Fold Oligopeptide/dipeptide ABC transporter, ATPase subunit.
Amino acid sequence: MTNRTPLLEVRNLSVAFDTPAGTVHAVNDVSYTLHKGETLGVVGESGSGKSVHAMSMIGLIARPPGRITSGEVLFRGRDLLKLSEAELRDIRGREIGFIFQDPMTSLNPVLTVERQLIETLTRHLGLTGAQARTRAVELLKMVRIPDAERRIKSYPHQFSGGMRQRVMIAMGIACGPELVIADEATTALDVTVQAQILDLMKDLRREHDTTLIWITHDMGVVAGLADTVQVMYGGRILERGPVDAVFASPRNAYTWGLLRSLPTEGGAQKTRLYQIPGSPPDLTKPPAGDPFAPRNEFATPRCAREMPPLLPAVGSDPNHLVAAWYDLPALIAAKEAE
């Protein structure tokens, strides 16, 4: 992948929000690349910057109070941050699709699903009403909504939560975008429906060679869907790399803590899940060093003073990057030997 021209290249992106309590530095110096056909799982707890960084790339944060303080976002070589709102509207939906977390607040409750899909198709593809309706039915079938010809006349509240999420996916992929961004798209669904949605996304990705950014707090979802995982905390990337490499040998203590928090299949009964101690940082007063240092049992004095750069993890995959001033595998081994 590293030898190909990236579809998306994010360079030193920083985003802030001006609030009565002070300026919240929500995203801080985020850089990465994404290639065509790749699925990137962006993971982190609430307030880590994972959703804000994606929404800011395509002009979906409110300005004010939000503002992009630095950076470039190159999509097929064009800097999205320099485009006008009209130009961004042309790209959103047509070239970059977005699947939101809550369909009930994202879908218009007083318009039928047909009306909402047709509006997207006519706006971006220039289809006639009849052509757009035919395509809309095809999309509902594609996302496995039964009896699509009849259900397309329904309103959002007449669908179950899982079916509403399928409608959102249909809208996100309606115009054949090269990149789809899904923000916590399965968070509110039960595990059975969540598994169905993930299977659907895998099929769509395989059949259409879609590039996907999947934003979630669930490492288990990332393991089953993504090629690359990107761990964010305090508005920064702390670790990034191929899913297999990161899960097999995490090099940042925050990633290690997230993986330890996952339930273990067949584990002993009545065992409490691991909980990362402490609280997220106050981003109105961002720390000078590693934002995870106060919660990190392996932190060094340097961690509190200086933010480590993202560098290749020694002894791992060449694309496995970590921001850490410590050797986590060695420290874990020493701890277990005590």
User: Anything to note?
Assistant: The first strand starts at residue 8 and ends at 19. The chain is about 35% helix and 20% strand. The chain has a mean pLDDT of 93.
